Amino acid sequence: MVLRIENLFFSFSESKNPVLKNINLDIGRGEFIALMGPNGSGKTTLALCMCGIIPHFFHGKYKGKVLVNKKNILHHAIHDITRDVGVLLQDYESQLFLPTIEEEIRFQMENFGLSADEKIAELFSDETFSYLLKKKLFSLSEGEKQKAILTSILCVNPDILILDEPTSQLDRREKEQLAKTLEKLNKEGKTIILITHDTCFAKHCSRFVVMRHGEIVEDTSDMTFLSKSSIGALGIEPEKYQWNTIKTCKSAEEKTKISIKNLNYKTQTPVLENINASIKNNEFILLLGGNGSGKTTLVKHVIKLLDIQAGEIKMNGTALEKYSQQDIVKQAGFIFQNPDHQIFKNSVEEELQLTLDLVKKENSGKKIDEMLSFFDLEKYRNKSPQALSAGEKHRVTLASVLVSEPEIVILDEPLTYLDFDGKMQLIEYLADLKKRGKTIIVISHRPGYYKSLVDRTFVIKNRRLTEQ
Amino acid sequence: MKNIFEYEEGNGFLYKIDPLIKIFLLVIFWIVCLYANLPQLLVIVVLLYATAIYCGLHKRFMQQIRFFFIFVFPFILAFHLFFYRSFTGESMSLFFFNPQISMEGFKMGVFIGSRLFCLLCSSTLFIITTNPLKLVKRLSGINIFGYRIPESVIFLFIFVNRSITLIFYDLDQILDAQKARGFSIRQGKIKDKIKGYAYLLIPLFTISLERAQKQAVALELKGFGFRHKRRKK
Known about the structure:
Chain A is of the alpha/beta class and 468 residues long. Chain A is 30% helix and 25% strand. Chain A contains 15 helices and 20 strands. The termini of chain A are far apart. In chain B, helix 3 packs parallel to helix 5 and helix 7 (151-181) packs antiparallel against helix 9 (201-221). Chains A and B meet through helix 3, helix 4, helix 11 and helix 12 of A and helix 6, helix 7, helix 9 and helix 10 of B.
C-alpha cells in the first residue's frame, strides 16, 4: 500500500460540520483512481489530507490516520510527505512562481536538495519539451502551463500523483495529450489519483471512488461503472448521458441581430483575420476553438470591451460605434468564465439592484424577485455572493446580468466550475432563455452539452471563423 | 497591464547589479526620498525616468506612470485636497472629518503623491530588473555570524514578485467585467469612474486573499519549507 486512510474525520476550525466523515481507503502502488462526486463533497479536502497540507497548514478537528508509504502524516512535516506525493492544484496558475519553466524546475528541485542541472540538460534534449523551458510564463497556453507544472512535480519523482480537476481549462487536443501522459506515467508505476467531474476523462482510470457529503459512497473497479445511468443519482454524469433530452420549440427569426464584417484584430501578432458572421434574432450560437484561438477576443468586440481595429460590427442594423457603453449593456449581457471577477456587492439582492441602477430600469423590486425565484436564489437574497458555492455564484452572475433583460446573452465557458447537477440546471436555464426569445452566444470546448439548443456552430481556427 | 511589473531579461546596467546590492541601494534611495522636498523629488523623478530609458525600459516605465496616475494619485490628491485641514487645523478630530478644499491640501497632495511615485517606481524598477530565482538564492545564502534571513522574509519576496502579476491579471478581468456591467474606471463620466473605484475592492480583495492562500499551499507543496530546514543545518 502506498496510501492508507483509516477512519478519517476532519472539520475546519471555523466550521462545526465535518467535511470528511469516516473515510477508509487503501490505495496500492500503480493504481489509477478517479475520485469523483458533486461540488462540495470533500474531494479536494481529502486530497489535501493525502499530502499533509491538512492538518499541518489548514488546521481543524482531525481524527484518524493517513499513512503515506507507511509514514503517518501527522508526525511528519509537509515537505517529508510532498517528496512522495506530487499535487497539481485545480488553480495551477498559483503553482508558478518564476519567470520561466527552467527556473521553476530548478526552484522545485533545489528546494528538495536535488541537483537540477542533469534534469534540465535531459529536458533540453527532449524535442517535445525543450521549446517550453525558456518560454515566458505569460506566453504559455493553459495546456503548456499544466504540462510544465506536471514536469516540475515529476522531477522530484514522487510515488503518488494527485491531479485536482486537471481538464477544466483544457481544450480537446490538450486533454488527449494529458490523458496519454498520465497513462504513460501509470504504466511506469506511478500511482495516480484524479479528481474530476469529467466522465470522459475518468474512463482512463481503473478504479472509481465516489464521495458525497464528505463520505465515500462508492468504491469500485467495475469498468462499466461510468456508463451506468444510475450514477446520475450520485451526482456524476453518466458517460453517454443524452444532453439532447431538453427540447426547445422556438426557432430563430430571420431578422439579423448582430452582423460582423471583415473584422481583424492583432496585438503583436494577428489574433483574428477577416471574420464575417451574421447572427439572427433568437438564435443559439455555439462558438468553438482551441485555447488561445481568439473566441473571447471576438465576443469582447461585440460588447465593446475591445475597440474595433479594422472591419465593422452592427447590432440591430446600427454600427457598434454609435452605441454608448450603457446602450450596449441594455442590449447585451456578458457572463465571464470566473464569477468572482464580476461580483461587486455584499448581498445577492444588492448585486441585482446594481445592474438595474446602472441601466435605470423601473419596477426593480418586482424584477429582482422574479430573477431570484427563476434562479432559485430566494434563500440567499441577503447573503454575500462571495460566501456561496461555485454553482450558486454562477447563478448570481447570470441573474445579475439577466435582470436588465438584455436581448443578447453571451456566456464564456459557463460549465467550467459546475458539477453534473449544476450543468443540468444551467442547460435548463439556457433552454428557458431561448424560449423567452433571447439571442444566446456560448463559448465552449464541450459542444455535446448544447446539442439540443444550438442553431449554428462557429469554429475559430487559425485566426479565421468558419461555420460548422 | 499584467506584464508591466514582471521580470524580463534585459541588458541594462540595473540587470547586472547583484540583487543584494540592489536591495541595499533601494533602501538608501527610499531614505533619500523620504527626506527630500518637492523640487528634489522632481529631480529624482527625472533621474528615475532617465535610468529607465538607459536600461531600455522606457515603454514599461510609461505604463507604470499611467497606472500610478489612474489608480493611486487620484486618491492621494483627493484625500489631501478635502481632508488636509481636518488633520492640521484647530478643529482637528480623530473621528470626524470635515471636508474643506484648501490650497495647502492640494500642495501637500502633490508632494505626497510625488514621494509615493518615487518609492513605487524605484521598487518596480527593482522588481522588473531582478531575476527572482537569483534573489531567492542570494537571500537564502546570507549567513552573518550564524544568523540567517527568516524563511518568512524570503517567502515574502517570492510571493510579492508573483502576486503582482496575478493581481494585475485579475484587475484586467474585473475592469472588463465592470465595463460589461456599465461602469468603468478607464473611460466614461467622472460619476461612473467613482463607481468603478468603489466596486473594485470587493472582487479584488476576495480573489487576492484566496489566491494568496493557494500560493502559500503551492509553496509548501514545492518543498519550500525543506529549503529552510536544510539551510539551518
